[in-house]
Amino acid sequence: MRIIGNDPSVPRQEHAVANGALTDGTPVIINSDGTVSVVAETSVSQNIGTAVVYSSSSGTEYHAAVYDASADRIVLVYKDTSNSDYGTYVVGTVSGTSISFSTPAVFNSASTSYLAATYDPDDQKIVVVFEDGANSSYGTAMVGTVSGSSVSFGGKSVFNNNGTTRHIASTYDTSANKHIFTFAWNTFWSACTATVSSGSISFGSVLELHQSSNQYRYISCAYDEAADKTVVAGADLGNSTRPQVRVVTVSGTSLTKGNATQLSTNSTSSIACVYDASIQKVIISQNTSSDGDSFIGTISGTTISFGSAYQFTPSSCGRLRSVYHPDAQNVIIFFQDDSSEPAIRIATADNTGSISFSSKIELDDRNMNTGAIAYDTNSNQTFAAWSNTQDSQGEALMFRSAYTEQNLTSENYIGIARSGAADTAGAIIDTQGAIADNLTGLTAGQSYYVQNDGTLSTTADDPSVFAGTAVSATKLIVKG
């Protein structure tokens, strides 16, 4: 027997519970809990959370922040100058647009400066690096395991015993599963790899990046996922404190370096590197004596080149930090503005090589010293912390950029709603191989793609999701 249309003996429909109202003839996704929803976009508004005190100490310095995705916690580490300069941490728990903190706890009972921190997604640990005043100011690392509102740290491990180690920065190479540390000591600028395994840490040999006639300072770095390279930047005091940039490559536990590129001819006292996944390039920001500028870096082989400078603030600034916002696909630049107050500008880059910026977003009207930021992938918000020097305390908040939230992925589309359904009601979905015959405006023989806003089009959106092939103006072979 020849059957025209859906063969009733072959199950090509899914019965599921609707999460939100379903409209007849609309593309549908499957949620992680097994419910179904229409493909849709939701506008998320900007929000500046209320600043919360994480430390009543009169002096917090050298902040570093890291988001632990496995524990869903933010860890802030800093030097507590009111407690013998000890290395101290607090754990932040995000609820909605607010954050609360654990009681400050010491992780290094010695003078602790130039802190940096990264998360190891493979071992699900955090790694904190610093100058250890208890051990000849050597570069030192500690591995931490976050549990609830506390962190258990392993012992101290030295990664650089050549001399006083300062201006430390770190990033994580997701391809090699290695942490990259870059740092200054004496007149050298150097780097090394670190490998975490079951809570233990080991290091590759130290690579000399450059030697200055004076010193290196204000070091920053970022892993470029597209190029599979790490970009490191530092200011050379022997060359009028101009910023220099290099590309380093991981091979096993070793590093190799590319040629040096000068970022600009301006002197700087703060540099921030970040990888922008939307354009698959790094963005490096620096301050000058009169403004703040950002540059897009393009890697070719083992060298990096930069386009024009784009001014993110027209006045003096400092204490730069930057982080990528994957949902909004832009970069958050956190800095001390010309009034010495904490502020943010949002940088949006495009593939033409240009960058545009939001107006300045003031986080507080009190003076700040050093600060740190991290991105919380669970709440889709940026964590910002700083030392409030006017009130002699440490403060932090959650900042949410405005963005459009999409629920469509490359994998969760399952078909077309056979009929409408109210929220929590049963729904019938035409799935792969079924003919959805409740559509309009199609062209027979054309392939159609699901758009992020829930419509169908003959061109693919991002992500590219194939909906099916039209056989008439009203019929579509689902995922045909």
Structure explained in plain terms:
The chain is mainly beta and 480 residues long. It has two domains: 13-40 and 434-478, no CATH class; 44-405, Methylamine Dehydrogenase, Chain H (7 Propeller), CATH 2.130.10. Helices cover 0% and strands 58% of the residues. The strands form nine sheets. Strands 7, 8, 9, 10, 11, 12, 13, 14 and 15 form a nine-stranded antiparallel beta sheet that branches. It has a five-stranded antiparallel beta sheet with strand order 1-41-40-2-3, with no helix packed on it. It is elongated.
Number of helices: 0
The poorly predicted ranges are 1-6
| Relevant CATH superfamily of the largest domain | Integrin alpha, N-terminal
- Nearest-integer average pLDDT: 95
CATH topology call of the largest domain: Methylamine Dehydrogenase, Chain H
Which structural category do the helix and sheet elements fall into? mainly beta
CATH architecture of the largest domain: 7 Propeller
Annotation, overall tally of beta strands: 46
Name of the CATH class of the largest domain: Mainly Beta
First-to-last CA distance = 22 Å
Number of domains: 2
**What percent of residues are in strands?**
over 45%
| Whole-angstrom Rg | 26 Å
Characterize the largest beta sheet: strand count, sense, and whether it forms a barrel. 9 strands, antiparallel
Helix content: under 10%
* Global shape: elongated
